[in-house]
Amino acid sequence: MSIPSVTAVSQAPSHTFSKSVVGAITLVAGLGVQNDAHAGATVKHTSLAAHDPSSPNLRQVHLIPYELLYELKGKGFDITYGQPRRQLGENITTHGLDLAALPRGTRLHFPAGGGGAVVELTGLRQPGPGIERFKPGLLQQVCYQARDGRVVRRAGVMGVVVAGGCVRAGDGVLVAMPALPHVGLGPV
């Protein structure tokens, strides 16, 4: 069994749908990705900030599994990691890790980055109309109602930075589960 890893890292200083792939990102405790539009202690997502700008920022870091991007590409969507204007706005693309199946409070450790950056998962990305504008038909692929009636969200997960450090493509990811009982990720 292989260790989960980072496939790509991205950031954008302004609110754009896709982010620019960079060689490394710096995570800052309590804030998020340095030089990224979503960094901050309070909410930075434009629609959430319009509702209550003093809310805590539970969306400091957006992580998405490479496997989802690969699946979507196989369904005809021109989406990939590491390509500007062809990704879903993620900061960290992982490989070998079912992010959506992890419970809230899971900590992802990136030990290769000097001080050992740590991101704590807060919830599922709530995909909105921007995904549909980006690629028509994509919203139905990443947010739909299952046969049992529950809403399935597959647009990645969100987290907060609890320990700062550098994260690069190729870094390993260590998973630390929270104490029991586990609570599944909900939309944030």
Automatic annotation (TrEMBL):
Domain MOSC: 20-176
GO molecular function, one term: catalytic activity
Annotated InterPro entries: MoCF_Sase_C, MOSC_domain, Pyrv_Knase-like_insert_dom_sf
The protein's name in its UniProt record: PK beta-barrel-protein domain-containing protein-like protein
UniProt source species: Mytilinidion resinicola
